[in-house]
């Protein structure tokens, strides 16, 4: 049996059981930590689609989280409360911006692509800070949250945890299916040898743009869910440092693997929480720990859990 599939199934089974188990041991407060980890994992999985499978290293991916979050927040402030309408609004706005920025960014490759995505990300970040009507640099506190046809099932006191878990599973499963499809094979061919892929007749720029937009849409959905959980939105979620965290999660977990982004995101959130609760200068330990993992687990955390014969599945 595919061990990576078993590991993924175990992770989701544990997440599904946590809302029942945590209250039994008096640790219900950890639910918020798990939600934070799941939201990071959704965005990391989306980034892995373009980095791990497409070879497009973006340092502005967090901007799409910010776009999705602000699209939802502005929609709520305008009186739109149905989460399905907010989801549609988020997808349209995020997809439109991704289509424009992606078409321009994909005219470049390598470090130039990284720099132009950083530039676009910073443009979006400063645009969000300039929205004075919605809190500007201080952010915006939301006094009303989205509902599902009047029900609070998509709110913190309802079933938001399970909604986020469902989106995480769909992202994990969907990106894996994309990677195993003909589309994913063309993406990897364009990553490994773009000249040969073009000679074979594949319009690689079109494939890369579609992957870029799909990744942005998933990140935008994570922004919508972040707003619903935090009841607050701030431009800081679109900063380039946030994009750096996503890249660390993807690389740390294992590029282009089934569970890599998932493992990396949970590792970062849990280790940060543990270290910060023990020592104030926790980054002095966290940094060298990441370096050691990168040096001695070259395939990331996935390399430690999955046999070499099953890597990348």
Automatic annotation (TrEMBL):
Bilayer topology: Multi-pass membrane protein
InterPro entries, per the entry: ABC_transp_permease (IPR001851), LivM-like (IPR043428)
Keyword Membrane listed: yes
Taxonomic superkingdom: Bacteria
Keyword Membrane: yes
Protein keywords: Cell membrane, Membrane, Transmembrane, Transmembrane helix
Gene Ontology molecular-function annotations: branched-chain amino acid transmembrane transporter activity
Example of a GO cellular component annotation carried by this entry: plasma membrane
Major localization class: membrane
Membrane-crossing residue ranges in chain numbering: 33-51, 58-76, 82-104, 111-134, 159-178, 209-227, 247-271, 283-301
Localization annotation: Cell membrane
PANTHER family: ABC TRANSPORTER ATP-BINDING PROTEIN (PTHR30482:SF17), HIGH-AFFINITY BRANCHED-CHAIN AMINO ACID TRANSPORT SYSTEM PERMEASE (PTHR30482)
Protein name per Swiss-Prot or TrEMBL: Branched-chain amino acid ABC transporter permease
């Amino acid at each position: 049996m595919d061990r990576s599939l078993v590991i993924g199934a175990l992770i989701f089974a544990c997440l599904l059981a946590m809302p029942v188990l945590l209250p039994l041991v008096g640790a219900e407060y950890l639910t918020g930590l798990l939600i934070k980890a799941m939201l990071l994992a959704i965005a990391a999985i989306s980034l892995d689609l373009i980095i791990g499978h497409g070879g497009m290293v973006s340092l502005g991916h967090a901007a799409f989280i910010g776009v999705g979050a602000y699209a939802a927040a502005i929609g709520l402030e305008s009186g739109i409360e149905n989460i399905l309408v907010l989801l549609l609004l988020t997808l349209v706005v995020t997809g439109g911006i991704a289509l424009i920025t992606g078409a321009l960014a994909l005219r470049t490759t390598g470090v130039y692509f990284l720099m132009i995505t950083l530039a676009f990300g910073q443009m979006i970040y400063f645009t969000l800070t300039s929205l004075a009507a919605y809190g500007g640099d201080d952010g915006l506190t939301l006094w009303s949250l989205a509902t599902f046809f009047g029900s609070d099932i998509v709110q913190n006191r309802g079933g938001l945890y399970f909604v986020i878990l469902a989106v995480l599973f769909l992202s994990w499963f969907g990106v894996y299916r994309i990677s195993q499809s003909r589309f994913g094979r063309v993406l990897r061919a364009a990553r490994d040898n773009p000249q040969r892929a073009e000679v074979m007749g594949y319009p690689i720029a079109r494939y890369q743009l579609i992957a870029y937009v799909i990744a942005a849409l998933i990140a935008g959905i994570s922004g919508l869910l972040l707003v619903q959980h935090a009841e607050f939105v701030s431009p800081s979620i679109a900063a380039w440092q946030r994009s750096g965290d996503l890249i660390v999660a993807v690389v740390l977990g294992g590029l282009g693997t089934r569970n890599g982004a998932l493992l990396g995101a949970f590792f970062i959130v849990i280790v940060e929480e543990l270290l910060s609760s023990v020592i104030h200068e926790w980054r002095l330990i966290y940094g060298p720990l990441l370096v050691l993992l990168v040096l001695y687990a070259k395939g990331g955390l996935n390399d430690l859990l999955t046999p070499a014969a099953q890597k990348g599945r």
